[in-house]
Amino acid sequence: MTPSDDQSTDGKSSHRKAPSNRPVHAVRVGSRSLPMHPLVVVCLGLLNVILLLTAVVIGIYCEYNSSKKGGKVSEEPPPHQIAAEEIIMEVKQLQMMQNDAVKDQEKAKQTIEIIHRSHQQMKVHLERNKTLSDHFQRQLETKNVEKATLQSKATDMSGSCGRCTSGWVLLNSSCYFHAKSGSSWQDSRADCIRRGADLAVIDNWDEQVNLFEFLPKQGVGRLQQKTGGVWIGLSDIQTEGSWVWVNDAPLQGNGYWIPTEPNNYGVLGEDCVALLNRASPQKTWLDGNCLMNKEWLCEREPN
């Protein structure tokens, strides 16, 4: 191949592409000129390094601050974790309350046992004291009965001078026995007869006054007037309105009737006389049904 075949007449190869007419920018760095494209690459690389270093520094700073606050990053726990922790706390509080309640129950039980033992001891002491008190009371009652019996006998002996038996009292010239149980007029007279006496016959003012002083005083109400009193030996059983003593002696004078008495009250009538002590000895007699139960007064001559 001749040189004319390889190159053209203007000195340029016919087989090579002609160089680009676009200018290449360069940047002078010191005494050297560098192309523009490599410089951009280097700048971007430096920027990446700077950003990486900045991220590393920020991470180290955050880690340092978190380590100063306790070594843990503060995070908000999820709701289910909060609910579980609250339930655990409530369970622990309930357990503490239960333990306290058990302790209080044990203390209360011990206190009740102490009180119960004290109550039992006190009960035993009270029973012993009551037994002793009952024993002393029985002894006192026995002594009082003995004292009353002795006083009664002494009174009988001094009052009747031995002319009336025990239980009877001497008033003027007669011995009287006051029966304090209840009986009808007929049964009362039968008791007096068994004692060697009869129902009392009041045939003078002195005897009326003595019996008024001797017999206990009773109420003045209407009920006491009909149910109270002491049977004496006066009645109109044989003839209504004709008052006769048990010794067959008729009543002399007007007697010592309570106002409105005798009145023969009731369907069965009132044929027997009782003495009811009131405010005045002049007004103590009343008529009553002979079947009513009343106390009675026996009379007999002294020994």
Structure description:
The chain has 303 residues and is of the alpha+beta class. It folds into 3 domains: 34-63; 94-160; 169-300, Mannose-Binding Protein A, Chain A. Helix content is 48%, strand content 15%. It has 6 helices and 10 strands, in the order αββααββαβααβββββ. A hairpin with a 2-residue loop joins strand 1 (26-29) and strand 2.
Q: In angstroms, what separates the terminal alpha carbons?
A: 211 Å
**pLDDT < 50 stretches:** 1-21
Q: Any idea what the CATH architecture of the largest domain is?
A: Roll
Shape: rod-shaped
Mean pLDDT: 79
| Annotated CATH homologous superfamily of the largest domain | Mannose-Binding Protein A, subunit A
Task: Produce the secondary structure layout.
Elements lengths: L2 H4 L19 E4 L2 E4 H33 L10 H82 L8 E3 L2 E10 L1 H10 L3 E2 L5 H10 L7 H6 L2 E6 L8 E2 L26 E4 L9 E4 L5 E7 L3
Parallel strand pairs: 6-10
Antiparallel strand pairs: 1-2, 3-4, 4-10, 5-10, 6-7, 6-8, 8-9
List the keywords.
eight-stranded mixed sheet; about 300 residues; 3 domains; 6 helices; alpha+beta; about 50% helix; Mannose-Binding Protein A, Chain A; about 15% strand; two-stranded antiparallel ribbon
